[in-house]
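To assess whether ligand presence alters the predicted conformation, the chain was also submitted together with adenosine-5'-diphosphate. Input:
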Amino acid sequence: MPKTVGVAVSNATFHFDKLYTYAVMPDQQEAVRLGSMVLVPFGRGSRARMGVVLACDEEPEHAKLKYLFDVAPASACLTPELLRLVHFLKERTFCTYYEAVKAVIPYGAQYKPALAADGVTPVLQKQLTRHTENSYKLVGALQQKPKPTAKQLAAVALLSGGERTQNEMEAHGITKAVLDNLCAKGVVECSKVNKSIDLYSSIPLKNEPITLTAQQQAAYDALLPGLEDTAPHSALLYGVTGSGKTLVFLKLIERCLALGRRALVLVPEISLTPQMILRLKSRFGRRVAVQHSALNHTERLLQWQMIQDGGADIVVGTRSAVFAPLENIGLVIIDEEQEHTYRSESAPRYAAQEVARQRAAENGSLLLLASATPSTESFYAARNGRTQLVRLTQRYGGNPLPSVQIVDMRAELASGNPREISLAMEDAIRRNLDAGRQTILLLNRRGYQTMAQCDDCREVLKCPKCSVPMVYHKAGHKLLCHYCGTQLDPPPKTCPACGGKLLYRGFGTQKAEEELAQLFPEARVLRMDQDSTAAKDAHEKLLARFARHEYDIMVGTQMVAKGLDFEDVTLVGVLGIDSLLFAQGFRAYETVFSLITQVVGRSGRAKDPGFAIIQTTDPDNPVLNLAAAQDYDAFFEQEIAYRKLGLYPPFCGLCVVGFSGPKEIEVARAAARFSALLGRQAAQQPDLPLRVLGPTPGNIEKINENYRYKLTIKCRADKRFRDLVRQTLGLYEQEKLPAKATVVVDMHSDGDI
Ligand code: ADP
Ligand code: ZN
């Protein structure tokens, strides 16, 4: 029972992020332990702040310690593994303790600060009032006189099989009145149990056995020893699109559960979770918990609670699900492991893979990365034997990969077609429509027209707060900034710089939708982008409708490209991705290759072979051509050579330090000062390999009135380097530079900030 504790306090800055020592009142000592959520008085005004106990019986730093305000019950404690993850995140990502805590438990905590009934005493208040329901249990025999009713007999018969909830009884036609009556007779006893909401209870259980193909079976057999062993292992399942990677997952999960262990499944984005949930729930039923950001607050906390209480064998979710409080993990699957959505872009800036690897090491699990287009780093590791490599080279059902045609859009314009949909594309869509098949079209720009340009001075109209073009949205008849949300309503007709006439041009998803409606008035077109899927569950519902063939054509941004499995889709069109081809950042080629391979892979997955068309103004581009040929191996050879030559990961670590603030000159100076401080520290360790580039302005120079600069550091991503950065951050804060430019350090950036 600790008398003093070391607490990580919320809202600390990096420099002041240490453990603060507090005294524990005798009546709190029973409840306090490592991982306890606490409320503490902080600073001169002793304002209440949230905190987490990370050390016990600390040596007091002053004679007069403050006392804790309040302690949450032990059930809200962070588990020992999650506590270790907090330290892991702090060490690896340069976040504060509390930022790590917030990442590890949803919404920061299950408790929030409040005032007691007296209106002055700060206390912790539970965020989630427990949802309970009635549960019934047989405790006595039913008398034969007076003659029991049919419903009473039915109720007793049901309960003789075990305890059941009111909901379950009602589903069998037995009302609460009947149960109340049986309780009064002493035959049945009612108790309150925690409601575990079964989010996807409408999904029917299908338990037909899985028969793997010979190749899938071979992959499964190769992975099995790593799963059955209690030491940690890692593997890369590299399987072409439609090869049935998910079936291999299901079999492995089945085996994992049979071994008495649990499984964690990560998918790259929310749009893919419904499909994975469906497959897992229909196979494994209720003991599947879900963690992703589209759940509302209560749903998410309830699911979290279910996992923490040991009620889940499988957890499926997006990036943050990697922190699920699941114990005894035997298998961690990261599907589409190359996706950037696995890297967090706000503090803590972690990659799900590194956290998963850490958890796999602690639990002795098999970490399985899977993809049709693995990240260059992962494939390199596999090829060099640091990770097991398992391949699936054939599509299920023996279909060939889709054949792909590249259409030159410059020639299209020259031949007099003013549309953004080429004649070849139009023709293919029409044939597909006539055959009663479905089409998926990809366009990575949302909105209607993507820029407004002055006819006289050629200036592109930019957001007043950001250095990016504004996008015209036809639905609301306004210009919108996709970075800060600024609107110009109504859209201006003349150039703000010279008064010349503004021309609206460019091609976004809304315009594509309109062009399709003109070309194919009879077709039912579904648009999928951030705007059309903003409502809760919109993704899921729209995809379900597309699956039921209530639409003929789906046009959308990247969210239509990945993972979807619809058997009637036999045509995929890429309307435009050229802006990605010319993007900066060392992963740009990999991203384009992966995106095209993925979207093309949506075509021809079931009975009929698929076809795909890619429109571009750069038809000879080597990356496009390799993607069209779906030749990952050739792409990898080219990419790894480029990475080696340019010194990029996996041949070095890349650390990007970003600076931002309202005064450009101060931001630039702060960045230069950081660079100088880093150089000074590094000079003390001349053997440390280090190459510092910059500072340079960010790729987007201004976002929301804040100017941006960056330093790019090529390094060896190890503890020594991290210590160096940490010292430099400390010096930067000591010189009070964060007031001029906030600083962030990202070890997972692709340099494109
Ligand atoms: P991937 O994730 O590799 O792109 P999926 O796992 O989505 O591929 O499989 C593609 C399609 O083939 C799915 O509809 C899946 O149900 C089907 N499929 C793959 N393998 C089998 C199998 N062994 N038995 C039945 N259906 C399979
Ligand atoms: Zn803006």
